[in-house]
Amino acid sequence: MIYLQHVSKTYSNGAIGLNSTNLSIEKGEFVFITGNSGSGKSTLLRLLLKEIEPSHGKIIINNRDITKLKRKQIPYLRRDIGVVFQDFRLLPTKTVYENVAFAMQIVGATNREIRKNVPIILGLVGLARKARCYPEELSGGEQQRTALARAIINNSPILIADEPTGNLDPATSWEIMNCLQDINKRGVTIVMATHEREIVNTLKKRVIEITNGSVTKDMHEGGYDDEMEYSQVFV
Amino acid sequence: MIYLQHVSKTYSNGAIGLNSTNLSIEKGEFVFITGNSGSGKSTLLRLLLKEIEPSHGKIIINNRDITKLKRKQIPYLRRDIGVVFQDFRLLPTKTVYENVAFAMQIVGATNREIRKNVPIILGLVGLARKARCYPEELSGGEQQRTALARAIINNSPILIADEPTGNLDPATSWEIMNCLQDINKRGVTIVMATHEREIVNTLKKRVIEITNGSVTKDMHEGGYDDEMEYSQVFV
Amino acid sequence: MMKWNTLKYLFKEGIVGLWKNRVMALASAGTIILCLLILGMSYSLGTNIDYILKQIETKFGITSYVKEGTNENKILELRAKIAGVPHVQEVRYISKEAALSSFKEGMKDNAIFEDFTKDNPLPASFEIIVDSVEFQDQVVKELGKMPELETRYLEKETDIFIKINDTINYISWAISGALIIVGLLLMTNTIKLTVYIRRKEINIMKYIGATDQFIRLPFLIEGVVIGTISALTAIIIIVVSYSWLSNILVTELIGLLNGVTFRPIGDIMQRLIPVCMIIGSGIGFIGSGTAIRKHLKV
Amino acid sequence: MMKWNTLKYLFKEGIVGLWKNRVMALASAGTIILCLLILGMSYSLGTNIDYILKQIETKFGITSYVKEGTNENKILELRAKIAGVPHVQEVRYISKEAALSSFKEGMKDNAIFEDFTKDNPLPASFEIIVDSVEFQDQVVKELGKMPELETRYLEKETDIFIKINDTINYISWAISGALIIVGLLLMTNTIKLTVYIRRKEINIMKYIGATDQFIRLPFLIEGVVIGTISALTAIIIIVVSYSWLSNILVTELIGLLNGVTFRPIGDIMQRLIPVCMIIGSGIGFIGSGTAIRKHLKV
Ligand SMILES: Nc1ncnc2c1ncn2[C@@H]1O[C@H](COP(=O)(O)OP(=O)(O)OP(=O)(O)O)[C@@H](O)[C@H]1O
Ligand SMILES: Nc1ncnc2c1ncn2[C@@H]1O[C@H](COP(=O)(O)OP(=O)(O)OP(=O)(O)O)[C@@H](O)[C@H]1O
Ligand SMILES: [Mg+2]
Ligand SMILES: [Mg+2]
Q: Which of residues 6 through 65 in chain A touch B, CB cutoff 8 A?
């Protein structure tokens, strides 16, 4: 479903985001992307969304080389991909409800569908009572959950999530992860960047580790590569 | 050093941020604030900074009721408090170096001091090579570390950190926590909101848990109140 | 094409957006209103200078001297004939005696012209006022066909006036043109700025899969609504202040110029209203459309 | 007070901020330039209408009739005396014969005035041109002291001109006043908008302990620099386009009005440059200062 062939990304200031990466993710997989801060996880995800262009290489999603996509076709690529951005990117002038509904409006959903589905999803992420709040009236975790709700509302075949639990307490995180697993079971391919060792270790999914822009580990049923017990070492 | 007396905060849309909270934090303490997403952790921290006003109650910092502070004196209160905001709040038109240096300029540091201290702090948070980047050229974790560098550069007697490791991988998180412990040992009072169970459980500091705006637990040498093993329950 | 449901949504978005982005909407509206006021002002000024000078021109009458020996009957007949010429507004007869006394008065009743009284050499004449100076030539031609008259009019003075008129018209058109350009630049400048402020929002919409058209439409609707409301506001301000000002000026100042009036407000508005509406809504539409374009490229 | 080091830093911040916020800086600068152009235009127009009308007024000469029987010597003496009167620019002598022939020519060489040739009743006269119409009265007074002369001038026509002049001046001042107000509103509007865009930045600075003064100073410096640069740009544009336009107009159009000139550019600039500079830098300073104030309240 998603194939990267020798993909590199060097930012205009010379920073290396990704370094000749090869990767293939099949339909229905649930993949964790791990790696240190600044290693290139977000870069990888942003490439899939055509938010940035690779410096080299091919990115094939659904049998199409997205680097060759025409401008007009980009929105349709993005509709196939639900995204939770690391910085949320909620529309500041829209309420939680409107932000989620907006994603449905984009794909031309009827008002009926919208009125039916949005409250269900908001309930799922625990934001039923915050539906009428604007993003700036939300806590960090609530914003993150709004972003997640927006990402999953359209049942896109691919879900990309950049640290979707970074601002969430463990209990809520697990609820969210459960929800993602359900979605995955319905056939959605999930690519999720995360730092949460506990989640990665517990779920035993495929784990791709990126170090300084290169894939350094790719394990099915993997765990967080964190052999040292930092808590022991540093305290 | 920090005393809250019957402090409540109800937001203008009716959301309850904090609910008649009493709290005292002594000089040199290291306090974790835990609680579910939306429970009121950020609200508490923002009250200390006078970013928002309490609906009721007194907040006393350094023997002064900050709710009665004159407008002119607010900057001086804030200089006594280093802050890492949950949403970072870096100045978008300044580089990493300039963002950190800016905090020193505010307190009237000399150019000599600035040129000497900023690189040291940036090294400490692992951003020496990103000094000339603008915030939008940074990864999430790098932005967070910049915010942390800015918070600690002035050696303020109080440090408030709202999930300073939310975007960091475990290794980097532990480096940061180590750094905070060092600072704490030098006498700085630290109040840190966090979700990271591992950190809280390992460090055995005072833990204040907030649930729906009320303090529900306040333990010295506490742990993350997370008795269920969610990973077992939900998977 | 777009679904009806979607169109309705986007239309509503545009309207709601006005309130949600009211600071920017007000800034744009303010600029458009002020620019249209400039426009209205320069147009009103230009057209009135023209109008007033035209009125002053008509004050330069035509004088037709009557040939020596024309009898009283003939003169009465001539008077009726002249009054019948199209565009003649007023005819006044000045007899030889009246001419002499007014001539002498002009000379301040002094002894130099004493000998005139012996044998009055001045002819009798008609003074003819034309209703509009444009027809002066036409009337003079008509009068030329009457053999008993010797017609003369202030060709040189009228000419100077016409030239001043032309110059002022020319300048006021140049100024109006410059002001229109300046106004358009100011308006697009502000609209660009208000769109620039919202570029992040536009980017987000694109990142989650919105098409250009989907994003653009509400902006265009916002733009048109702001432009139209601004145009209406500007028109109201112009109408009110124009009638107020022209009243004051006519009574206080132009009164001196015996009965000069300003161009009636209806005349002005007939042109100004459509122009303001077109510019207002056009700039809102085109300004938003072009400003948004570059932010859509993500 | 603030340390020298801090002041230096804030000053640098202001300058660097221009580049870092160049979109906003350009928008502000564009607005200020355009508004100052409007101002310059309206001022140049107003002052030139005044100037041109003044020139036309001087074309209304004074005529002094010479009393019958004044001899040649006396006439030469009179001529010298008149030329010596302050503000007299030109004196022309018109003999009795010249007066008659020009009178007859004015009457289109027709038979009505045939009898004039028998006994020429027209007096000889001097035509006197005053260097500026304001002194016409003064010169006439002076001429009145010469017993050999009977002085007459186009009081009525001059009066009309002066009244037109007054009216146009009045209107052009009103318009200029309105344009200044509109311009100031437009400028503050844009500045407010550019500060509004940066309100988050201002808030962040406050949250980490910056004083109002510390935040405000770079904004003020930015504002003043933008205002000053804009003013300079506007002045350059005005100088260039004014000299270009007045050349074209003088040769192409005003040529008709025998030798009318525009107000020299130096005259215009003498007032316009300080006004532009003060408004430009003032609006930059005050606009930024007031716009930032409400965002500092966090
Ligand atoms: N827009 C940009 N311009 C320049 N450099 C960038 C940009 N975005 C990211 N980088 C750099 O590219 C590298 C990879 O960044 P990326 O955001 O992919 O990291 P990450 O793995 O997501 O880190 P984190 O866990 O902290 O979010 C970093 O060194 C970062 O500084
Ligand atoms: N500006 C605001 N206006 C209205 N309601 C707000 C505002 N900020 C926060 N809230 C509400 O107040 C409650 C507490 O928010 P707060 O940000 O303190 O939570 P938190 O404990 O920091 O959560 P998180 O862990 O998700 O960051 C939430 O229900 C939130 O929706
Ligand atoms: Mg990232
Ligand atoms: Mg929070």
A: 11, 13, 15, 34-38, 41-42
pTM listed for this prediction: 0.85
Strand order in the sheet with B81-84: B81-84, B158-162, B189-193, B30-35, B206-211, B214-219
Q: Looking at CA atoms only, how far is residue A222 from chain C in angstroms?
A: 30
**Which residues, judged by CB distance below 6 Å to any ligand atom, belong to the binding site of ligand 2?**
A 130, 136-142, 167; B 11, 13, 15, 17, 35, 37-43, 86
Q: What pLDDT score was predicted for residue D274? A: 94
User: Over the stretch A46-65, which tens digit does the pLDDT of each residue have?
Assistant: 999 999 999 999 999 999 99
The closest ligand to the CA of A38 turns out to be 1
User: Strands, E, within B26-183: which ranges?
Assistant: 30-35, 56-61, 64-65, 81-84, 158-162
Phi, psi for residue C110 in degrees, rounded to 5: -110, 170
Q: State the pLDDT at residue D113.
A: 53
Highest mean pLDDT among A81-85, C32-36, D237-241: A81-85
CA-nearest of C40, C1, C51, C9 to C264 is: C51
* Cβ atoms within 10 Å, residue D71: 8
pLDDT for the residue numbered D254 = 55
Counting ligand 1 atoms within 8 A of each CB, the residue from B138, B144, B145, B163 with the most, and so the one to mutate, is B138
Q: Taken in order C14, C19, C23, C28, is the CA torsion positive or negative?
A: positive
In the prediction, which pLDDT does C57 show?
Answer: 65
What pLDDT does residue C71 have?
81
Biggest alpha carbon–alpha carbon distance for chain C: 105
Which candidate from D5, D17, D214 shows the least CB-CB separation from B106?
A: D214
- Across chain C, mean pLDDT equals 82
CB-neighbour burial class of residue C97 (10 A; exposed 0-12, middle 13-18, buried 19+):
exposed
Residue among A139, A169, A176 to mutate when testing ligand 2 (max atoms within 8 A of CB): A139
Give the whole-angstrom CA distance, residue B143 versus residue B88: 7
> What ipTM goes with this model?
0.87
CATH architecture of D61-153: 2-Layer Sandwich (3.30)
In the structure, which protein residues have their CB atom closer than 6 angstroms to any atom of ligand 1?
Answer: A 11, 13, 15, 17, 35, 37-43, 86; B 130, 136-142, 167
Q: Is A219 helix (H, G, I), strand (E, B) or coil?
A: strand
Count the residues in chain B: 235
- Residue in this structure with the two tokens 């319905």, named with its chain if needed: A186
Instruction: Concatenate the DSSP letters of all residues of A82-119 into one string.
Output: EEE-TT----TTS-HHHHHHHHHHHTT--HHHHHHHHH
pLDDT on residue C262: 80
pLDDT at C51 over 70: yes
**CATH 3.30.70.3040 residue window(s) in chain D:** 61-153
Chain A CB contacts of B86 under 8 Å are 140, 167
Query: Number of A:C CB contacts under 8 A?
Result: 54
User: Can you tell me the distance from the alpha carbon of D23 to that of D26, in angstroms, rounded to the nearest whole number?
Assistant: 5
Mutate which of B95, B142, B163, B165 to test ligand 1's pocket (most atoms within 8 Å of Cβ)? B142
Q: Which of A42, A93, A146 to mutate to test the interface with C (most CBs of C within 10 A)?
A: A93
Q: How confident is the model at residue D235 (pLDDT cuts 50, 70, 90)?
A: very high
Nearest CA in chain B to A43: B139
State yes or no: pLDDT of D209 exceeds 80.
Answer: yes
What is the residue type of B99?
N
Contact A8, A52 (CB under 8 A): no
Contacts of D59 in chain C (CB under 8 A): 160
Two tokens, residue D177: 């006043």
Per-residue pLDDT band at D103 (split at 50, 70, 90): low
Is it the case that residue B3 has pLDDT exceeding 90?
yes
Could you tell me the distance, in angstroms and rounded to a whole number, from the CA of residue A95 to the centre of ligand 1?
A: 29
